[in-house]
Amino acid sequence: MSPRKSDSRERMVLGAAALLGEYGVGATSIDRVLAHSGAPRGSVYHHFPGGRSQLIDEAVARAGDYVADLIDAATRADDVTEAIDAFFALWRERLVQSDFRSGCPIVAVAVETNDEAPQLARSAAEVFARWREALAGVFLRNGLPEGRSRRLAAFVIAAVEGAVIMCRAERSTAPLDDAAAEIHDLLVHALRDRPDPDPDPGHGTRS
Fold first, then answer.
1. Domains annotated on the chain, with CATH
2. What is the pTM (predicted TM-score) of this model?
3. CB 60 within 8 A of CB 120
4. pLDDT at res. 104
5. Can you list the pairs that 39-48 forms with residues at least 24 positions away whose Cβ atoms lie under 8 Å?
6. DSSP string for the chain
7. CA terminus-to-terminus distance, the chain
8. In angstroms, how far is CA 204 from the centroid of its own chain?
C-alpha cells in the first residue's frame, strides 16, 4: 500500500485521536474529524465502512499503540526511574503545548461510552490492560516481584490519568508534577529494597 493512498485514512485516525483527547467522544463527529484532518468526505466510508464507531475504535487503538511504544522504549533505558520520569514529562509537555486542552483519548472513551457502543468500552479496557502489562514487564525485568510489578504498573497509570484530568481542570501542571515526584520516590525505594535476583542456596556453606 502506497503512503499516498493511505494518507487520508491515517490523517483521519490521528485526527480522531486528537479530538477524543481534547473534546471527548460525543463531540468527535465525522464532520469534525474531516475538518481537522482535511480528508475528503468520500473517503470516510471507503476507509471506515463501520462508520464513526470504527473510526473511534481505530483512534483508540492508535493512541494505545503510541503510549505502548513509549513504555517499550522504557524497557531499553538504563534507569527505569528516569524512564518513568520521562513518561510523566511527555504528558506535561502535551498539556502545556495544548494550553491544557488535550487529555487522554482512552479515558474519554472509557467514561463516555454506553450500552450503544460496548465495543468502544472494551477497546479502552484492552488498551489499559496492555499498558499495565507492559509497565509491569518493565518493573519485573528490573528485579521487582511479579505481584509488586503489577500493582505498581496499575498505580502509575492511575496516577498519570488522574493527574492529567486534574491538570486540565486546574489549568496547572502541579497535580502531574506532584504525582511524578511521588512515583519517583516510590520507585527509588521499591528498587532499593528489591530482593536479590538469584540468591545462592549454597552461600555461606562453602569453605
1. 3-192 (1.10.357.10)
2. 0.83
3. yes
4. 93
5. 39/8, 39/9, 39/11, 39/12, 39/15, 40/8, 43/8, 43/9, 43/12, 44/12, 47/8, 47/9, 47/12, 48/9, 48/12
6. --HHHHHHHHHHHHHHHHHHHHH-STT--HHHHHHHH---GGGHHHH-TTTHHHHHHHHHHHHHHHHHHHHHHHTT-S-HHHHHHHHHHHHHHHHHHTTT----HHHHHHHH--TT-HHHHHHHHHHHHHHHHHHHHHHHHTT--HHHHHHHHHHHHHHHHHHHHHHHHHTSSHHHHHHHHHHHHHHHHHHHTPPPSS--TTTT---
7. 67
8. 46
Residue where the block lists cell 483519548: 105
How many other CB atoms are found less than 10 A from the CB of residue 106? Answer: 26
pLDDT at 77: 72
Q: If you search the block for the grid coordinates 475504535, which residue do you land on?
A: 57
Residue 158, all three cell numbers? 492511575
- C-alpha cell of 117? 457502543
- Tens-digit pLDDT profile for the chain (207 aa)? 334 446 889 999 999 999 999 999 989 999 999 999 998 888 888 899 998 989 999 999 999 998 888 877 766 777 889 889 988 998 999 999 999 999 999 999 998 876 657 888 899 999 999 999 999 998 998 999 999 999 999 999 999 999 999 999 999 999 999 999 999 999 999 999 887 765 555 555 444
Neighbours of 3 (CB within 10 A): 7
